[in-house]
Amino acid sequence: METPPTPTTTTPPSLTTEGTMDDIQYLLHLEAMRRFQEDSRNVKRQVEEQVRIWLDAKCEYQRDFGRLARLLKCGALQAAVDAHRVSDVNQVDQAAKDIASLRSKLGSDLRPAILDSNDVKQCLEHLNTTHKPRLNLCRQQREFAQNQEALRSLRTAVDGLENGMEMGMIQAMDRLVEDLLPPRETNN
To answer: Does the global pTM surpass 0.70?
Structure first.
């Protein structure tokens, strides 16, 4: 049987206080750098997330604005069509009969010496009540000018809103970055 080796007592190498402090400071420095890099990555990730959210909101806003513009355009087009549309089929039939009657009278070889006063009165009445192209034109020009002014105002408002949203988002991101960054040490 072999005898086990006898244990020898070894004394640990002498540790100097200065070497230990340098090592601790170096480890603390490495830990601080690791935290700073981790915080930087975290801030960058959060900023990218906020930018993505902002871009999504901007796209949604532009899509909704486009829908609103198309809706306004369709409304204006419908108003223009309604202004030109004859409202009653009976009026169209009556106008066709009147035109046929006038055509037959004008197309005949017999020329009346005087016009029938009832026809003249009825024609004047129609001209005064239903056929007002100048009034319609003035009204349509006025509505067009109002629509143009409203469109300019809407464009100005949208530009202001976009600028305000952009500045607000930038300020919010700046505040978020300031909150996430480690506090700066000031030397006083």
So the answer is: no
